[in-house]
Amino acid sequence: MTDSSTKGRWAWRTQLELNTDNNNLPNKATPFSSLCEEIEEDLLAIPDKANYVHYSHQGTIGRTQDGGLVIEDDEGILVIAAEPDMDEEINEILRDLAYLNRAEQQQLRRADKMWNDVGRKVKKGGVNFELATMYKTKDKKVLPVHDSSVIPHAVEGRLDWQERARTRQPPNTDQSWRQFQRFIEDRTAPFLKGTRVTPERLQKMKIAEWLWPREKEMLIEVFHCREAALSFDFPESGRIHPDVVPPVRINTVPHDAWKEGNFPIPRKLRDEVSKMIQERLGRGVLEYSKSPYSNPWFLVKKKDQGYRLINNAQKINGVTVRDANLPPNPDEFSEEFAGCEVVSLIDFFSGYDQVELHESSRPLTAFFTPSHGLVQQCTLPMGTTNSVAEFVRVVTKILQDLIPHACMPYMDDIAVKGPKTNYGGELLELGIRRFIGEHIMNVDKVLRNLEMAGATASGFKSDWCYDSMGVVGYVVDRQGRHPAPKKIQKIAEWPSCTNAKEVRMFLGICVYYRIWIENFARRAAPLFELLRKDSIFCWTIEATASMEDLKYRVTHAPALVSINYDEPLGLIIISVDGSKKGWGAVLQQEDPMGRRRPVRYESGVWAVPERNWDSGKHECKAMLLALKKFRPWIYGVHFIVETDARTLVDQLNRSATDLPGALITRWLALLNMWEFEVRHVEGKKNVVADALSRRPEPEGWTPPEVPEDDVEEFIDKQLGAISLTSNPMSHWDLEFTYRTYAVDLSVLDTLYTDYFRNIATWLLTLKNPDGLSRSELQKLRRAARKFRVIQNILWANASPGRPLRRVVDNVEDQQKIVASLHDESGHRGREGTWRKVWHRYFWPRMFQDVEAFVRTCPQCQLHTAQKFDEELHPTEGPNGPWEWVTMDVVYMPDGLAGKKYMVVARDYMSGYAEARGLTENSSAQVSKFLKEEVFSRWGVPQKLSVDGGPENKSLVEDLCKLYNIQRIVASAFHPQAQGLIERGHKELTGALRKMKGNWVTNLHLTLWADRVTAKRSTGETPVFLMTGREHVLPVELSIPTWQTLPWDTVRDTETLLALRAKQFEHRDERLREAVDRTVRLREEGKEWFDAQASLRPSPMTIGDLVLIKDVLQDIDMSRSKKLLPRWKGPFRITRITDKGTYLIEELDGTPLRATFAGNRLRKFYQRASVELGEILEPNGALDAGELVSEGSPLQYQEDIPLQKQRQGIEVRIPVKQDFRREDFVLYEAEEE
Q1: Would you say residue 219 lies in a domain?
Q2: Same domain, 464 and 569
Q3: The Integrase catalytic domain covers which part of the protein (predicted)?
Q4: pLDDT in tens, 157-189
Q5: Whole domain around residue 1109: which residue ranges?
Q6: pLDDT in tens, 750-803
Q7: Statement to judge: residues 287 and 354 lie in one domain
């Protein structure tokens, strides 16, 4: 984001390239992104108004009132403010853009209102305005080559370069410096005193005002004596002598030469650029070239308003072999100066130009200039991947005899130390304090080394003798070390974050200052929670509180000192505490006044498994982690550890009565390697460490799943051993260490993939694999502790109830093992098969692989007794009586006149039944029954539900077609679809069974009894719902009821009809109530069934392969069929009705005419490698030997718990042959 304060800030962008070739005009408007690929460096500003050229629908480019260039599109706004005399260049860019994009004159127009709106958004922070800088993001950097086969040139230069430099220096004849001859070395400059350090220049040099006059005189005398080591202008710049370091080479891999185009130079800067190049040619920084290479270059404005010429080295970096030399760690570097009474910061004068480049490497740096043609660099180029490494090496060699007691170099800055005491005001001589004098002598030594090496420092840019100094992002003074005010201001003004990227940026700068923040890990926990991969970003109150807390802690940070190792050594104390939540520690040192001064704070939180430990383990690991963190500061010195854990103190002092466990014993072994004294302090006195470990957790925060520190790896390194679990199988001759036998690592290549090969290699050689990050190495080592290598074979460690298990990393071997232990071991289920494999072998995701193999076993699927139900689909209620009729035929004993079948029809609304005995189960007699007993008595229904038997086809079908009746056929072996009539069979046959005589004779009486009996589904009798009145029962004749009383008041027909009408009106009300009751009970029945049934875990879809239940095999349990498959198939689902019935086809596309209920089908799981043509004949079994299970992913994780339910891997087989609806008849079965 930016606002009006952006004016005056400089940003770098490469220049906008415009193609004005008339022969290559684009056919349509050029996209904004391609036009703005490269934009030159210039001032950024936000003008009030602008004139625009609308060149396409994607964006806008135009002029600001002050002459700047403005570009706007969906990605944001870029403003390049013009300097004076740039109108012509800006107008040229606009004209070219308009011409290239076919912009006509009438398209040029004012856009004041739009720009005002945009300007307001920018100022309010509503537009994402990206300020470009000189630094590329990581993804845009060109990385060097990591090629260890290319042998770099050896580091050259002479070790006796200082002696040789002294012999080259002329004798000194100027005796004016003799007043400080006891403190300053002789002047050796080859020119007259005051040639460079003139009174005018002294006025501009940055010398601390707090120096006493005599001290300032001494410092100025140093400047005159070391005048050859100071530069104020480019002609005075030095060149490092070859004795120190010979010309630097750029080591590259074989490559082809390149030729890159130049960035256009701003016209107003062309004369200045020409002078700059001419001046560099004169100084020997550049030279004319015949190189086959050509690199682009550009200018960057410097702080002093000058320009720096930058050679774009991206092509060079792409072929350069990396130099791993690094500058010092900023934290350690700044800590060296914490507590110094006085500090100076010496800045090299154009340091890279003082290091000569080897003649063989100069052609790589060539670039073309309009005024001087092709030139190449003679000195170390900026921007190349190894420039920093080379320059750090050179400066370190120059100052080697002064590091670290007198100075510390960091890149092109040399920080000169002063004493960490003022010696109580002691004077070196009259008018010169001792600590100031010692510091000025250090400055003289540093400049003397630079002078002998031929290097020069900047007289204007260096800071001399300050009591407070900014060093690599920190401020150091006599009090200690503080965060830099500018950095603190950025943190204090940081707004609330809107995404994870902004949180990461904020935490990045806070982590830089975490040593100042007590309990940083716990304070920042809510912000770290927002960075989890599986979390949705949501800025919470806890995150706001955490951010404000960190801001306050950084802006009010205490001064941290560095440990003073001079004698007498001040007492070094570590206060440590561990609690149920985490741990905290503070490193301190007592000053001469006996005050404890903090050096740094550290803290952490326990992972989820660690939180269940007892307090003894918490305290012991807290101490171990604290010593690990503070190890660089306490190793080799005596220190004191303070803790409130009495038991731990006794264990370390060997006065404990109870023996510690194995884990704590291992930790104590490492703790005893340090030279320290442990003291017990009460918790209320251990304030800081106790607060660090017990700070309340933010609401909603969860601890990490794994420990943040790999302490076991640290213990392994210090104790010099690998943690190995003992092997209970004593009959094996185990070789526990890699040193006891020869190692042939080539065997591992044939057995394992990269992951397990890296584990085995690390166990055998203790060498880290190449190409892994630090976090990946920690994970690898943590995983490696669970394995061991025996005779070049990797084994998973033994545990209680489980011996060593061989690691199998080959997919084919994994499949062979599972197939053998399943197919040849009785086709046991998932748990049994997995147990067999798990007890003998190990590989990641073993449980899922076994589960998938067992699930897809054809023989197991064809013979399993398990089947699933599906949810019921209640039918809708009919609108009137006898609109929907359901019919079925029941087999009966032989009756009168040869009748041995009973056909029954029921009304769906009332449950009213009609029935007749039949001599044969034929469609002729069934259709006759329908016409005589149903149609002629109750009318023609709209729907007729039947099963798929032959008696319901032929003439019955013709009868339905004749009267346009919808014929609904239920699925076979699915009585739920005919629930109303199937339940009625039990009532009728039960009554007939209890009555004396032939069932044919008793049928009508049984029907009458069924009709006058109330049904649970309706709450009414069928006869009342049909007639509006209840039938008079025989008992009512002997004991009269309301229905049998005479209607004496009825005298005429009109009265009778009125009473009958009221009866039927009452009947209709009760009929509606009966329908509602029926629908409600059906829904309740569905809920009950679905709750207690074994429902299918996942629905079947069209295209799934299924097996059909062989129902007859369940009925016929004779010995000949006892071992036959319970299922047939596989088949393929082609259609699913909304009532839960399925239409299926053979695998060759032939459809089956019948419909199937879901409880007769079972999903068939096909192994991935089996093609459709490999499946045997329809309804036949599959040969398990022809199927190959799919491979398992090779990702390490823990074993899968036995009882954890997992979904199997479903493989879809595509439909080979499509079918048309007209190819066969579709029937829809209704379920109740």
Answers
A1: yes
A2: no
A3: 877-995
A4: 888 888 888 888 877 666 555 678 788 888 888
A5: 1104-1163
A6: 677 778 888 887 877 777 787 788 778 888 888 888 888 887 788 888 876 678
A7: yes
